[in-house]
Design brief:
Elements lengths: L2 E7 L2 H11 L7 E7 L18 E13 L3 H17 L6 E4 L3 E4 L2 E13 L2 E11 L16 H5 L5 H20 L3 H10 L7 E6 L4 E9 L5 E4 L5 E4 L4 E3 L1
Parallel strand pairs: 1-2
Antiparallel strand pairs: 2-3, 3-7, 4-5, 5-6, 6-7, 8-9, 8-12, 9-10, 10-11
Length: 243
């Protein structure tokens, strides 16, 4: 279980991609950096992080027999690995916000970016980017809904130890994924889903506001929302946001 530590890099995901492309990389190799100048988030967003205070890592995973149709369960497994790791620090009110943010109450404490290499009907490998707000206590105005482990528990966390904890949890959950324990992963993920079963206000891609209740996640990874007429509508990641 190799860990490569960098002082600064544009993106740990990009660095690890290049490494995989140009050399032989062991399964579950981790790249971590004190500073990312162009960290990646979902949908092309940037992951902003104060130098030396947070965890910004990427993990390489290769598979023996992972089908593209099971990508949803891969997401569940990685989310649960990060969730469980942060839970060990007694951070309160943790949930998983669909599809793969970790929340403490209504504030984001971690984000995940999964980039898969596909061939025919299979996932060949993944680069898993994980950002966890750890010892940063102040955030820019555009990150007003962010928090950190230190803000939640009032003490600093050792980043090296946290890196090893994340790596071990990912390995553990990948064993479940590779063994096909999909129903267990799904049940565990849904039991931790942010605002599941709670009436909430959403905005769709046309800027329309509507009320609904999160019901679950479909097999193709879409969010299922129960509407006022008792119908269930599915939304992709670009099609719905919370207010």
């Amino acid at each position: 279980m190799k860990i490569i530590k960098l002082n600064a890099i544009d993106s740990t995901n990009s660095f690890l991609k290049d490494l995989v492309r140009n050399s032989v990389v062991n399964n579950f190799t981790v790249v971590t950096a004190d500073e990312q100048t162009a960290g990646k988030g979902q949908l092309g967003n940037k992951w902003l992080s104060e130098k030396g205070k947070n965890l910004t890592i990427s993990i390489f995973i290769k598979y023996t027999n992972a089908l593209i149709t099971n990508q949803n369960y891969l997401n569940f497994a990685i989310c649960l690995a990060v969730f469980d790791t942060i839970s060990e620090y007694n951070v309160p009110n943790l949930t998983i916000k669909w599809p793969n943010d970790i929340m403490s109450a209504n504030k984001k404490i971690s984000g995940i970016l999964i980039e898969n290499t596909l061939k025919k009907d299979k996932i060949i490998s993944s680069i898993i980017g994980i950002g966890i707000n750890v010892n940063q206590t102040e955030f820019q105005s555009q990150l007003s809904k962010a928090t950190s482990i230190q803000n939640c528990i009032n003490q600093k966390t050792d980043l090296n130890l946290l890196t090893k904890k994340v790596q071990k949890k990912v390995i553990c959950y990948m064993e479940s994924f590779q063994k096909g324990a999909f129903l267990i992963l799904e049940d565990n993920y849904l039991s931790k889903l942010y605002k599941k079963g709670i009436p909430s206000t959403f905005i769709d891609s046309h800027k329309n506001y509507f009320m609904g209740i999160i019901n679950g996640v479909s097999k193709n990874g879409k969010l299922q929302v129960l509407l006022g007429d008792d119908s269930i509508k599915e939304f992709g990641i670009k099609e719905i946001t919370f207010t």
